[in-house]
Amino acid sequence: MIELVVGVVAAALVGWVMRRKRQQRATAMSAGRPAGVPCMLKWSAQGSRWKAGRLLIGAGPLVWKSSPGKREVTLPRDLAQAGVRSPSLREGMTINPGSRIVTCESSGGEVLIAVMPTELHQVTKALEGA
What is the mean pLDDT of residues 57-81? Predict the structure, then answer.
């Protein structure tokens, strides 16, 4: 019984933290301050694998920062959204199957950005403004 109570408390705490972080990002972006949206990036210029990181959305150009390292990559200025889709079965094994993939075209090739549905609006809005 104690394990059940501890599990419920832990789940509630994780949900609260995730909701709080999402609200902080939304507040920062509406105030014009830069914010990092968690995502995964697949870009032929960076290799053929999905890489975890954050899309830094702010006043300047879109920048992707890798999670494990401190590497920052500025995305092409001519990046344009081509569509939004769900991940395929194969992609769902690598990324979260509940995420959405934003397909973008640029002079540097196709760029795929995987984000959770709760963050999708912020990313597509940033791509429209880029």
Answer: 82
